[in-house]
Write a structure and sequence with these properties.
CATH topology of the largest domain: Immunoglobulin-like
CATH architecture of the largest domain: Sandwich
Structural class: mainly beta
Distance between the termini: 152 Å
Oligomer: single chain
CATH class of the largest domain: Mainly Beta
Number of domains: 6
């Protein structure tokens, strides 16, 4: 009975896939694949005879019943090609129930044959039919027979429609139970799609279904007594929604773009078109076929491209020689693509999209100059663009196959010229980057080469037209005199006598082919110290040179001069004179700071530090000698001691009352001859405490002989 077990398992769990049409116009029901009659009776009247038809089953897979196969639970029987149930051998008995499993690519269904009148029929149970033993326990879940069911989507009224039947095979007295259906689609969301007749077990669908929303339902069937107690089950009921072709193929985008390189071999894949069909992918409802229905333009051939019907790959059909971007009427072709389901049959639904294919360029044309010779004229001494070189290139503009690169391959040993590409029009802009000299070379011959940014394809080379000659004529102009050297640097001592010689300017005229005279003049003399001979160019002092002047910086004085020739029109040139000024000891030193503080108690903080300062430079400045003035008696109260080359300390020798004193000092520098300066420092004698000083704000007392005598007398009295 192994075959019976396999049939029952398929009967319980197999998901059926079938293609079924909807209800036809006029209210007639469409074909439902499977057994058209699901229950048969075969009255036993004696032993079965081999090859004698017992009954004929009614099975239709709605597709011509091609390749339909049948399995019978009892291997002693089979269903022949005429759908007759036939014994394979002479057999005395069969089981009380025969199960027939019919299936094909379009249907999968079960039918039951009851065989009443068998001898000892009560001894046979469903468990015997399935070969599972001799005794079936009471209320076994296996006593509920629930075949899988199918229902076509989009069915029309009337509803409800019976789609299958649950049965109880049990030795118990019938009628003592009721059927119950539970699960999603029954008593759970979406509620009420399916119902079961509590008495007969007929399962019905209550309204139209949508396979694209839910393609199958799994429910449970059980039987209960009238008090609600479960007797049998639950058993699994799988309801499969059969697809209808109710969805058109849809392209993700309405317009697709692709490109193919010109000259590509025939069969080159350009792009892939992909559409989606929401119908069942396992049926022809979603089996798509692609086709090109329009090409625009249709020149040079209306069939330049082909699309693989199943994969959607667009490939080239046109020959590589004809796929020439420069000779085609356009570089962009538009294809209208249709995707049709039902494997492309006439009844299939369609979706459309547009494919735009661009023929891209490769560098199969070398750039060529429009003229073999270009001429340019340029004034000597000037720079900038002198001529624009034009080229023709048949390749696609704004690509590396069209963009030009120019180079000067001869005629420019001093790199006086430069050529760059104008990005707007691809012309070569030849420029002078170093001023040309008419007197040196009046005529230049340049050889220019043009190439593309991209390499040429292997079978194309640069020809003679990819080079051109440029004649550049230099035109003479009246050039201004040139100072040599510029700047002119000289060294002079400051304070030299007025009228002293400073420098001799030298300006020459570049126009050596013309005899022209040059005159000199002062252009900028900030301090007014200089004059120049207009013919000879000699510079003399007209005032004293002063290194310490604000017009001198870093010991240097700068003046500008102009030289003018007598050409037509006159031309000028400027030159710079820098005078490095040497120092002369012409500034006396002075003492800093001008105010110093000491404490009135000669034994507490009675020292002040002062230093020397000189506008001159060493050796006309430090070391300084700082000493007391020549007034008699100063050395009795004050003492000046040298600390280093620039500073000395003033020391109070005995106590003085709180006051301000003007102390005369003499400071002398180290120049030859040395300069001295008599100066006074205001010394504040302050009362000093811990951390603080109290100084007088009154006018200073001059340290005179009378004051010193009075102070000395007070000191003696105190002693």
């Amino acid at each position: 009975m192994e075959t019976g077990v396999r049939i029952l398992l398929a009967f319980l769990v197999h998901h059926q896939i079938a293609h079924v049409g909807g209800q036809e116009d006029g209210g007639h029901e469409a074909c439902v694949p499977g057994f058209q009659v699901k229950n048969y009776q075969l009255l036993y009247s004696g032993p079965f005879q081999k090859d004698r038809a017992l009954l004929q089953v009614k099975f239709d897979d709605c597709a011509g019943n091609e390749d339909v196969k049948f399995d019978v639970s009892d291997p002693s029987f089979h269903v022949d090609k005429d759908l007759n149930l036939v014994p394979l051998q002479d057999d005395l008995y069969s089981g009380p129930v025969l199960l027939i499993h019919g299936f094909s690519a379009h249907a999968d269904d079960m039918a039951q044959v009851d065989v009443p009148g068998l001898p000892g029929q009560s001894a046979y149970t469903l468990r015997d039919v399935l070969g599972l033993g001799q005794k079936l326990p009471n209320r076994s879940k296996r006593s509920i027979l629930v075949p899988p069911m199918i229902v076509t989507e989009n069915q029309r009224a009337p509803f409800p429609r019976i789609i299958g039947k649950a049965q109880v095979i049990s030795p118990e007295k019938p009628g003592n139970h009721i059927f119950r259906l539970t699960g999603p689609g029954a008593d759970q969301d979406p509620k009420g799609l399916f119902t079961i007749n509590i008495d007969t077990g007929d399962v019905s669908v209550s309204r139209s279904l949508d396979r694209e929303a839910i393609d199958s339902y799994q429910l449970e069937v059980s039987t209960t007594d009238f008090a609600g107690n479960i007797i049998e089950g639950p058993a699994i009921l799988v309801i499969t929604v059969i697809d209808q072709n109710d969805n058109r193929p849809i392209f993700k985008e309405s317009r697709y773009t692709g490109e193919v390189l010109e000259g590509s071999p025939t069969g080159t894949t350009v792009m892939t078109m992909t559409a989606f069909d929401a119908d069942d992918q396992g049926t022809d409802n979603a089996a798509l076929r692609y086709n090109i229905i329009r090409q625009s333009p249709d020149k040079p051939s209306p069939n330049m491209f082909y699309i693989d019907a199943e994969r959607g790959d667009i490939v080239t059909v046109i020959s590589p020689m004809l796929l020439d971007r420069e000779t085609l009427p356009t570089t962009t072709y538009e294809l209208e693509i249709v995707a049709k389901d039902m494997a492309g049959s006439e009844v299939g639904l369609t979706g459309t999209a547009t494919a735009t294919i661009t023929i891209t360029d490769k560098n199969d044309h070398a750039p060529e100059f429009t003229h073999p010779l270009f001429e340019a004229h340029v004034h000597e001494g000037s720079t900038g663009v002198v001529v624009n070189l034009t080229v023709d290139d048949r390749d696609d503009p704004a690509t590396g196959a069209w963009r030009a690169i120019y180079s000067i391959i001869s005629g420019d040993p001093k790199q006086s010229f430069e050529i760059q590409t104008n990005p707007d029009n691809n012309e070569g802009m030849l420029s002078v980057v170093k001023p040309l000299d008419y007197e040196a070379i009046a005529f230049h011959t340049l050889l220019i080469k043009v190439e593309n940014e991209d390499l040429l394809v292997p079978n194309v080379d640069y020809g003679p037209s990819s080079t051109a000659t440029v004649h550049v004529t230099v035109e003479d102009i009246n050039e201004g005199p040139v100072f040599m050297p510029d700047p002119l640097i000289v060294t002079r001592m400051e304070n030299i006598p007025v009228g002293s010689f400073v420098a001799s300017l030298n300006a020459t005229d570049p126009d050596i082919l013309e005899l022209q005279s040059i005159r000199y003049a002062v252009l900028r003399d900030p301090a007014g110290w200089l004059s120049v001979n207009p013919v000879r160019g000699t510079v003399n002092t007209s005032a004293s040179l002063d290194r310490e002047s604000p017009y001198a910086h870093d010991n240097k004085y700068t003046a500008l001069f102009i030289a003018t020739d007598n050409g037509t029109p006159p031309a000028t040139g400027t030159g710079t004179l820098i005078i490095h000024l040497e120092d002369y000891n012409d500034n006396a030193p002075y003492v800093v700071p001008s105010v110093a503080q000491v404490c009135e108690d000669a034994h507490d903080m009675n020292v002040a530090i002062v230093g020397g300062w000189d506008k001159d430079l060493p050796p006309n400045a430090a070391p300084f000698k700082i000493e007391l003035g020549k007034q008699p008696g100063l050395d009795k109260t004050w003492k000046v001691t040298r600390l280093n080359s620039t500073h000395s300390q003033i020391m109070l020798l005995h106590s003085l009352k709180k006051a301000n004193y003007q102390l005369p000092l003499l400071i002398t520098d180290s120049g030859v001859p040395p300069l001295s300066n008599n100066t006074e420092v205001k010394v504040q004698v302050c009362i000093c405490t811990k951390g603080r000083r109290y100084c007088s704000s009154a006018h200073s007392h001059r340290t005179s002989l009378l004051m010193l005598f009075t102070t000395l007398l007070l000191v003696l009295v105190c002693l």
